Amino acid sequence: MLIAIPDVLQREEALALGRAIASASWVDGNVTSGAGAALAKRNRQLPEDGEAAREARMTVQRALAKSPLFLSAALPHAIYPPLFNRYSIGDGFGDHVDNAIRVDPATGTQIRTDLSATLFLTDPSDYDGGDLVVSGNFGEVAYKLPAGHMLLYPSTSIHHVSEVTRGERISSFFWIESLVRENEARETLFDLDQSIQHLTIAHGAGDAEVLRLTGIYHNLVRRWAKA
Amino acid sequence: MLIAIPDVLQREEALALGRAIASASWVDGNVTSGAGAALAKRNRQLPEDGEAAREARMTVQRALAKSPLFLSAALPHAIYPPLFNRYSIGDGFGDHVDNAIRVDPATGTQIRTDLSATLFLTDPSDYDGGDLVVSGNFGEVAYKLPAGHMLLYPSTSIHHVSEVTRGERISSFFWIESLVRENEARETLFDLDQSIQHLTIAHGAGDAEVLRLTGIYHNLVRRWAKA
Amino acid sequence: MLIAIPDVLQREEALALGRAIASASWVDGNVTSGAGAALAKRNRQLPEDGEAAREARMTVQRALAKSPLFLSAALPHAIYPPLFNRYSIGDGFGDHVDNAIRVDPATGTQIRTDLSATLFLTDPSDYDGGDLVVSGNFGEVAYKLPAGHMLLYPSTSIHHVSEVTRGERISSFFWIESLVRENEARETLFDLDQSIQHLTIAHGAGDAEVLRLTGIYHNLVRRWAKA
Amino acid sequence: MLIAIPDVLQREEALALGRAIASASWVDGNVTSGAGAALAKRNRQLPEDGEAAREARMTVQRALAKSPLFLSAALPHAIYPPLFNRYSIGDGFGDHVDNAIRVDPATGTQIRTDLSATLFLTDPSDYDGGDLVVSGNFGEVAYKLPAGHMLLYPSTSIHHVSEVTRGERISSFFWIESLVRENEARETLFDLDQSIQHLTIAHGAGDAEVLRLTGIYHNLVRRWAKA
Amino acid sequence: MLIAIPDVLQREEALALGRAIASASWVDGNVTSGAGAALAKRNRQLPEDGEAAREARMTVQRALAKSPLFLSAALPHAIYPPLFNRYSIGDGFGDHVDNAIRVDPATGTQIRTDLSATLFLTDPSDYDGGDLVVSGNFGEVAYKLPAGHMLLYPSTSIHHVSEVTRGERISSFFWIESLVRENEARETLFDLDQSIQHLTIAHGAGDAEVLRLTGIYHNLVRRWAKA
Amino acid sequence: MLIAIPDVLQREEALALGRAIASASWVDGNVTSGAGAALAKRNRQLPEDGEAAREARMTVQRALAKSPLFLSAALPHAIYPPLFNRYSIGDGFGDHVDNAIRVDPATGTQIRTDLSATLFLTDPSDYDGGDLVVSGNFGEVAYKLPAGHMLLYPSTSIHHVSEVTRGERISSFFWIESLVRENEARETLFDLDQSIQHLTIAHGAGDAEVLRLTGIYHNLVRRWAKA
Lengths: 227, 227, 227, 227, 227, 227
Hints:
The first copy, chain A, is built from six helices and 17 strands. Chain A is α+β, with helices and mostly antiparallel strands.
């Protein structure tokens, strides 16, 4: 599932975060790339162990923990500590598939990258180009979201960031190992959760079908979680 | 899932079918047993290729095709041609698990026995003993249903028929290869189908949640069918 | 995977087929719909057992058997006998998910609908509206292909045909049960087959890596086929 | 699998534990409920972070680690820190399915609830009502075990506690993430382990079939563990 | 599992069959090869539709149906109609993996090639070279069996026939789609079946552990068959 | 997959390690055995918590982390802390299957033993007998590798160490839980990785097919990792 999640950070909060890290010192983005990707990548990243990254990371982590839409769509089991990148004029990132396994630098834990996320810290009006273009099993779609919005998409997809031709694009990006590995299973759970929420609003949490569907939801999670 | 399905045949129809085949000639029930089961089995069966069995079989097959509860609970892919057995005084069948694969004598097709079914052609008042006792993952439960009712239960279970001590018990029995092999997956689909039917009655077939849940149902069938 | 396959029929052949069946008699399209879909469907279909449908069906079946791109992308195990529909002004088909299981009317075989296909028999210039709009895990994309081209897309997707506002749209449509049930597995095999074909052209069929990758391809098919 | 495990605690030990925590202060049981469950739940629980709960928890954990029947039937990968509840007159808990994922408060680890357990700390003669009623794929069965005995049952089941009408029922309850997620696979392993133990007693640990079956057991665990 | 099955045909019967077909007319072996294999193959085959092949095929099919070891090890769901090949001096077949899917020419059914079989119709003393060399996950092993014996091996393996340097080697070869797709699962079932047979001989078919293990065997077949 | 990995340690380094631990004190090898294995085992082991074992363990762990062939073939998720054993004249270890689950003594983590490894610390010329004999689905193969080489083989296999009849054999042994549980899946990934490495050397890391195959590799890892 590809889903655009609005207001993970409030717009002002996102822009402030972008400005705060913009003034830190940045390094070549290839520090986190696999061998194949390195050829295609032209951008900068915030060093993971700097003070600026540490604070910004915690801001993003707190926001994720409070986003019901993110939690329902991603069913996160582990989240790679958020990173930050910056595309200036002439920067871009060619077509690639993300590496399947990342090691969390803080804990040494292997994280399977089921989902990729980009949280926008600049507004579309701040730059030209810089589209996140995802090629999936339904063709190619380009995304450029307002500051504070986040694109969540399967790490199985081929994707690229088109060349920036004006201004600058600053984002946070990271990967999620979901409790539910398979994209189509996770989508089914998301749809079922949406149905249950609508029925709960319409008929109450004690409604017999709400209770039955909730049981089905938990038994499907049980079947697919960590499996 | 173990489920008692009422009125697969109307009571009078079931009793008439039982009487009709009772007058045919019967043989030792071990003709259809695996090696281990033979030790434990004491009953008689109607020869598969006789005229009486042929007609009775078609009556049962027509009844199954018209039972929505059977179709929703079993999601049949193939049904072994129904057989008929008869427990007289002193007969019974010790604990056993049904063979996993049966060959349809008509077509030579291998049928995986996911579900076992017993359709009762005599009434509980016609005999003492003769309970169908199913030991599953929730303990042991004994069943003795009215004529025309059918017990559908996982072929993975250990089950036995207790000794008949009065009268006679006549039934049809057979196995089903389901589109959905796994018992728990089939149960989830049955529950979801029940929910969709209740919501359709309450809110109409065009209701947005009915449509969404119907899509989820079909995508889950697609995921599990023949897999 | 969603894929547009060009020239399944040559353009003239496709248009001729469309004209040939246009003059036959048509019926309400809901004859093949599930209960939910019926509410949303407004179109006409060619009766399955008519002479016109029989000949047109064979034309489409012969074309499919000769399309390497279709065979590689779909890995067909069973193909539902092609049907034909017709959207005139005011016709359309609301959002729906296709039924998971269809029974082949010729053989009685259950077909799991993994993939849906629409083969266009009129040109985009012949009508306005009538887009095939597929909503998948990468958003919503609208398709309207030239006569003779075919759209192949996962039956798991929600899709609709937008209202025709000028002219008429005639197509063949059908479903495929693939040897490989899972969409992502089938896509991986398609990508690997493409790679092998490119490497074969570049380095020859006897190249060591071509042979090794061909072995990997067959072992992955073996793992996933009919499973 | 549903299984009643006798003497996880000796009867006197269990009753003493029940008396010891009875005098601590208790809170509304809904502190650990999911949203749906809260509607149906009327009981009290021991606060997780109190001294009484801490000691009682360790008593239960030590007992579990020494129960071969529990270890063989549950194949535990993670055990939620045992909780304690108390049903007084008028208390009960309506039909519900347990939440699929619980977070261990001590470690922050997500625990998939494959199995639910109730360890009885009062005797059946101490109260009326208060049955643990489990509805599974073999119908509904009610349980009320002696002090020190434990009921282990699939968390996929719908279950309720009937209203207490006399006296008081005190228990420990918790969830287990098994190495083997699937109920039927876990049951097969339990049956095979029972067979190996019987054959070992009869023919010795060095018997050729004991060795072969032990190899099969370990290879089945390897296939299913954490998968 | 790779297994050598003795006496599928009696030695004299096998040699007689080899002599009988030797006098028929043979064609280039590449008629049944996939594209990659064709490069590596130098042998002759008996045309599938000739009278000689038809009779020889039936002889082999009857022998397979009567071999308990073949049936237990292969758990056949479909057997490709046996073919016959002949390696003369200078002939051989380079390393290759068999195609995953074959179409039964008689029925049009797709057969997944889980297992490959070679039934030897000449004796090792009749030729030099001509070893069947199988490279699996335990290294490379060469086989050359007496007339009437059969090698059954996973079609997933890379294998070749070394060049014949003296005499001539005549064999029947074919593929099996097993009820149980996965090699390791099929091996576990074979081991369990062997154990049950040994325990039955030692303790009788009515022994409690024989019955329990037989139930486990059938439930494992049920879990894996056609899945 | 069974694979012999050369030079995990340099020959001199391996022999020096063997000599260093030889002078420590050793205990009966049955300290780490399951019940069945104990009957068949006659060797000595280095106590896990001694100073000699601690240092030797770190030497082996550092070597494993630097072996690309080990990392690609095993895709390790967890490695049991390496142990050390010693077979003197008359010692040996009968046929057995390794236990499925081991608990890491350092962390308490359960490790599923997918792969077994033996790193040889003495040379084949130092002893007679002492072969590591692995019986897998391709028959039985005996291994005796030079000092510093390591045999990696599926823990599902039955294996034994033949009796030592001259000299002494010292090795490190341990188990690996792979990211990819299934042997055949892991082998496919290894083959694909080998192909990508060869194509990268021949055509460069930016070659279109190298990039496509790398994407396929990562999506297959994603599909199978931790699943």
